[in-house]
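Quick review question:
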């Protein structure tokens, strides 16, 4: 790909697209100006989709995703009756000298990526590939990384708002820490590491540290004020989320619910939630081939909580009614149980923090709007997540993560539970560092 042409489009997406979106939303310019400029500055010169390497195709999907969502939002917002035929939102965005329809071209680029990417924007392109490479480091060493696909260290957004930048970075930080936790548990899940062994307990402690760092990062984000780089509630509801419109009838817009590492962790640790697999598979059309393979593999084997109970001959009803002394006896007999309890408790906390964020940025402010008569957005509803998840379902999922089989160990003092933990040190706290992706 011509590097001069590529950088021109990259800069247009980084600078001109956010400015055009702002102008259209403030009614300073008509939506047709965004479409015309995109066609003239970028789309008319794009090569056939088959000319891209897989890496180039992933970059193109990021930028086409942002552009397509922008054009679709403005087209449907101008007349919400157009939501019934969302595929008509892309008139004027024909690609190349032959005028290939936008959706057809997008689908061809998705195929060229070799990933199974859907024919519209999704979490993988808007978050994972867009945000620079995130490295999880412990003690100065990189333990895992989630690559970006751009050679720069910038994040492409809809409007350039600092809150959008911070939110996309938070999502990728979360995914990186989740990946680190999931990967360290994988040898236990696949049976190559005996769940009763000291090594398995050490892996559980390591995963606990990653999930603790995850909860801390999300709590820190919630505490940020909009004028200090945080995400404003109104901006989240009325600007950012309104780009998650449909491209085709009943398709699945990008959502944090498509974070495959979150879904994978539920399957790894176990979640007693009727219909969970059905709930999870609702996201499959928006996932990549590799992501569906990860989930299918874990769904076909026992979760770690079930394996733990079987390995230590523990009965859930007996654990649920155990006294403090009986729990102490269990810990003395099986010291590794404290590691697994700490892990499940950390996972429950992550679920609680996630619910807190959804309450703060979506459910509570929308209830206030409903009570005051303001009502809901006619474009993208703020009464549910963009994947369709409503508040009661999220509350039930949070409770299911909290009600794990070792929850009664909360009765033991923290100092007792921590005695079997490996000695900690300051540089053992996981951190996430960002760097530009490979060119």
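Suggested answer, residue by residue:
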């Amino acid at each position: 790909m011509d590097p001069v042409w590529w950088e021109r489009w990259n800069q247009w997406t980084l600078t001109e697209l956010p400015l055009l979106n702002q102008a259209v939303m403030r009614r300073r310019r008509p939506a047709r100006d965004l479409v015309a400029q995109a066609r003239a500055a970028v789309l008319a010169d794009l090569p056939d989709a088959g000319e891209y390497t897989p890496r180039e195709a992933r970059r193109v999907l990021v930028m086409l995703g942002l552009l397509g969502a922008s054009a679709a939002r403005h087209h449907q917002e101008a007349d919400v009756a157009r939501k019934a035929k969302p595929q008509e939102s892309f008139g004027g965005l024909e690609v190349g000298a032959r005028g290939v329809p936008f959706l057809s071209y997008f689908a061809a680029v998705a195929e060229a990526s070799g990933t199974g990417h859907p024919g519209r924007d999704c979490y993988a392109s808007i978050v994972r590939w867009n945000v620079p490479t995130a490295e999880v480091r412990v003690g100065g060493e990189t333990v895992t990384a989630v690559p970006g696909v751009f050679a720069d260290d910038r994040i492409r957004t809809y409007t350039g708002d600092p809150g959008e930048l911070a939110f996309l970075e938070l999502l990728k930080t979360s995914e990186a820490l989740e990946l680190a936790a999931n990967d360290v548990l994988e040898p236990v899940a696949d049976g190559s590491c005996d769940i009763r062994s000291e090594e398995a307990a050490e892996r559980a402690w390591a995963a606990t540290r990653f999930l603790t760092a995850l909860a801390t990062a999300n709590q820190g984000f919630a505490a940020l004020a909009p004028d200090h780089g945080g995400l404003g509630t109104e901006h989240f509801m009325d600007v950012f989320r309104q780009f998650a419109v449909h491209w085709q009838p009943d398709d699945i817009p990008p959502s944090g619910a498509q974070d495959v590492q979150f879904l994978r962790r539920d399957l790894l640790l176990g979640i007693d939630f009727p219909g969970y697999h059905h709930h999870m598979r609702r996201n499959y059309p928006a996932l990549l081939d590799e992501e569906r393979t990860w989930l299918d593999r874990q769904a076909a084997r026992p979760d770690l909580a079930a394996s733990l109970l079987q390995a230590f001959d523990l009965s859930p009803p007996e654990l649920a009614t155990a006294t403090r002394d009986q729990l102490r006896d269990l810990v003395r007999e099986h010291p590794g149980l404290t590691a697994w309890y700490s892990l499940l408790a950390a996972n429950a906390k992550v679920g609680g923090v996630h619910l807190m964020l959804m309450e703060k940025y979506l459910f509570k402010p929308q209830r206030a709007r409903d009570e005051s008569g303001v009502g809901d957005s006619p474009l993208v509803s703020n009464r549910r997540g963009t994947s369709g998840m409503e508040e009661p379902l999220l509350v039930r999922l949070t409770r299911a993560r909290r009600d794990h089989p070792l929850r009664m160990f909360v009765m033991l003092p923290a100092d007792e539970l921590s005695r079997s933990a490996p000695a900690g040190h300051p540089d053992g706290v996981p951190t996430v560092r960002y760097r530009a992706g490979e060119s």
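Why it works: The mean pLDDT is 94. The longest helix spans residues 337-372.
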